[in-house]
Design brief:
four-stranded mixed sheet, 14 helices, about 30% helix, binds uridine-diphosphate-N-acetylglucosamine
């Protein structure tokens, strides 16, 4: 086999993992907390910030809007908003990170106007923004689409009853943040209930926003005057997807891990599925203790909005099923195209057939190491997990995708006994 090139990750199967891993803050929370600083002047201190590329990309976008950022210590982010904002999110920034769509609500409600480049699709399919637009239009925003840009304006938004046909995470966050300064009361029905949405609500409430129903599928926001919110310090919620990645690694390699800082109450359903596959998982005061004593058993899984099994867990689940005993059927209900990494898994000897939004996975005793590509963040992490279950060496390219969402995946896995190097 060719030697791994710079920037690639090489993984070898060595057997059991043992030890303790700390899970950092959640990417899908911190990016939205950063955007919330648009709403009020002052200096913010975010802690438990993962050291990932997406945080740096979001910092660049916010700097372009007029918010300064600095890192006083690893895992901390200080951000200052002086009120001198440019409500424009340029293409060069937006195309790098999908979460940039989250500036729409805060800039509109704070500045009365916003222009941003239309976010593009992802490797796993189109990502429309119709729910974001309809929610903000109901609050009085006027939209214009031209030359690849979306522009919205409203001197002051007004409260509205918004009911989503689907509990979109991003649309919930945009309407929620826009409603903070709207005139009157906004209700959001069929709101997303993900722990990261709750984290954003909690930061907004500590800034002075009036939000009730936090954590439920009906959020009610009473608008407060612009200027009445203040900057705060906030700790980012732990990353349930990174926690699942380390459990999946344990599942295929075997052994025993303590995964700290992970919140079992945010992972109820997915922990149940890991137990169904034969892992023992006990909540402990600051995380979970997990044991994988024997080969995993196959199960059927379908992805759903929270509290269902998140689509982000799916590449990990398919990787686990590819070496489990029996046959499992995985159904994707959010992004029908999110199966591309399966071709890579098949290069490692996995037996997977896809039909529409279903994948049928027949477990094999062991995969066989080969060069593979990371196509997106979670698919990339799944390739690393697959490498732990493969004879010989698996070399992963496209590692920049993994860097977007994982804080030292290689170092953390190595610290519990994995044979893994970054070249
Ligand atoms: C967020 C997460 C992503 C996760 C997803 C679903 C971030 C940065 N990303 O993405 O990792 O996979 O939630 O849990 O937090 N949809 C529409 N119209 C819209 C908006 C969404 O049809 O206006 C559809 C999407 O195409 C998709 C589904 O709704 O099929 C879910 O999307 P959404 O919940 O909005 O995901 P994101 O916020 O983009």
């Amino acid at each position: 086999m060719m030697a791994p090139a710079p920037g690639q990750i090489a993984v070898r199967h060595v057997g059991e993992l043992k030890g303790s891993i700390d899970v950092p803050g959640a990417k899908n929370a911190v990016l939205k907390l950063m955007v919330a600083t648009i709403l009020a002047d002052g200096t913010y201190e975010l802690s438990n910030v993962p050291q990932i590329a997406d945080v740096a990309i979001m910092s660049d976008l916010l700097e372009a809007i007029g918010i300064t950022t600095d890192v006083p210590a690893p895992g901390r982010l200080r951000m200052t908003n002086t009120g001198d904002l440019v409500p424009i999110a340029p293409y060069e920034q937006v195309e790098r990170i999908r979460a940039s769509i989250n500036v729409l609500g805060p800039l509109l409600t704070r500045c009365g106007h916003v222009r941003l480049s239309m976010p593009g699709g992802d490797d796993f399919g189109a990502r429309p923004i119709d729910l974001h637009v309809a929610g903000l239009e109901a609050m009085g925003a006027v939209f214009k689409f031209s030359h690849g840009d979306v522009e919205a304006s409203a001197d002051r938004l007004h409260g509205a009853d918004v009911t989503f046909s689907f509990p979109s995470v991003g649309a919930t966050e945009n309407v929620l943040t826009a409603a903070v300064f709207a005139d009157g009361v906004t209700s959001i029905d069929n709101a997303a209930r993900e722990p990261e949405v709750i984290d954003l609500c909690e930061m907004l409430v500590s800034m002075g926003a009036d939000i009730s129903g936090v954590g439920s599928s009906r959020l009610v926001v009473r608008g407060v005057p612009r200027g009445s919110l203040r900057a705060v310090a906030h700790r980012t919620v732990p990353d349930r997807i990174q926690a699942a990645t380390y459990r999946a690694a344990l599942g295929v390699a075997g052994g025993e891990l303590t995964i700290r800082e992970a919140r079992p109450d945010h992972m109820h359903n997915v922990l149940a599925r890991f137990r169904d596959m034969g892992m023992e998982i006990e909540p402990i005061p600051d995380g979970v203790h997990a044991v994988a004593a024997s080969r995993l058993r196959s199960i059927d899984v379908q992805t759903l909005p929270y509290p269902g099994i998140a689509t982000d867990y799916k590449p990990l689940m398919i990787t686990m099923l590819s070496v489990a005993e029996g046959v499992g059927i995985v159904t994707e209900n959010l992004y029908p195209g999110r199966f591309r990494y399966i071709e890579e898994l098949m290069r490692l000897g996995a037996d997977v057939r896809t039909n529409g939004h279903h994948a049928v996975v027949r477990g094999v005793p062991r995969l066989s190491g080969a060069p593979v590509k990371a196509h997106d963040i979670r698919a990339g992490a799944a390739m690393v997990v697959a490498g732990l279950a493969a004879e010989g060496e698996t070399v992963i390219s496209g590692v920049d995708h993994i860097d977007r969402g994982y804080d030292d995946l290689v170092g953390r896995l190595r610290s519990v006994g994995a044979d893994i190097t970054r070249c």
